[in-house]
Amino acid sequence: MRILVSGSTGLVGSAVADLFAHQGHEIIRLIRPGTVLPREQPTSPAELKHVVWNPGTGVLDSRAEGADALIHLAGASIAGHRWTQAWKRELRESRVAATRSLIASLRQFRQPPRIFIAASAIGFYGNRGDEELTESGPAGSDFLAQLTADWEAESSRASEFGARVVVLRFGIVLARRGGALPRIALPFRLGLGGKIGSGRQWMSWIALEDIVGIIRFSLEANLLSGVANAVAPAPVQNAEFTATLGRVLHRPAILPAPGFALRMALGEMADSLLLVSQRVYPEKLQRLGFRFLYPELQPALAAIFNRTG
């Protein structure tokens, strides 16, 4: 297949581009002006192609036309900056406005992609306590929930040019390098780890390998369309997550991080990312037969931290 990938320099995008290129697909990165491309790894196939995409001006290189699929993963880091009003605008512009611009550009092509796979997030649900959440659950009411709902609405418009649209609500992506896990693990490595807040909040997680597998499944499974929760089938409460992480790292998990301190340090972001409770299940993926490599937390963490290199 000929596959366009936006956000190809991020954690998920780089893993997707590398794996699919090795499998013989033609991968074309959508690169914003000024983006510094990472050096290709020695084990990578020939250097991946790229075309320019400028969301601000609406310009998308015509060489992107004729692709079979587009995997849309672009967006400013949710956890990479304190949520000032300026950064909230950047989060919205890089997701909602950029996706609107991308869809408008693709609509001009005679041959737009027939498959459009877009990232979203379980932040869509907001803080839901112990409620068991599937794809039919309504959106929450906080900033991240409303941002995510608006982002999904723009992605769904790819159906207007005939594409099969799959919107994947990512859980917490676990990987050794990149994403949230290295930052979560650092206090444990220093012997300072423990539960976050009350520890009762639910964490819906997913191994990086399974995210890549879900994206591949989305390309191949014609019956899959609309939103799908990209999470492992075994969410855990934070106290269990941190205890499991401590066991895997052979470190204690006895020093809690109080909620009030996190709010003082991180502001609104603490409630939406660290103290929020989201007990999410991948109902649609399981119904369609997707098989997880890491359905349980301890084997997933053990595989991540026992890897060499």
Inertia-based shape: globular
Label the structural class. Answer: alpha/beta
Q: Residue ranges: pLDDT <50 for 5 or more in a row?
A: 41-46
* Oligomer category: single chain
Number of strands: 14
Average pLDDT reading: 91
Please list the strands of the largest sheet in the order they lie side by side: 4-3-2-1-5-6-8-12
Q: Quickly count the helices.
A: 10
Explain what you see.
With 309 residues, the protein is of the alpha/beta class. It is built from 10 helices and 14 strands. The strands form 4 sheets. An 8-stranded mixed beta sheet has the order 4-3-2-1-5-6-8-12, with helices on both faces. Strands 7-14 form a two-stranded parallel sheet. It is globular. The two termini are 31 Å apart.
Short description:
The chain is an alpha/beta fold and 309 residues long.
Chart the SSEs and their pairings:
Elements: E1 2-6, H1 11-22, E2 26-31, E3 49-54, E4 59-60, E5 69-72, H2 85-107, E6 115-121, E7 132-133, H3 143-156, E8 164-170, E9 172-174, H4 181-189, E10 202-203, E11 205-207, H5 208-220, E12 226-230, E13 236-237, H6 238-249, H7 259-266, H8 268-274, E14 279-280, H9 283-287, H10 297-305
Parallel strand pairs: 1-2, 1-5, 2-3, 5-6, 6-8, 7-14, 8-12, 9-11
Antiparallel strand pairs: 3-4, 10-13
Helix pairs in contact: 1-5, 2-3, 6-10, 7-8
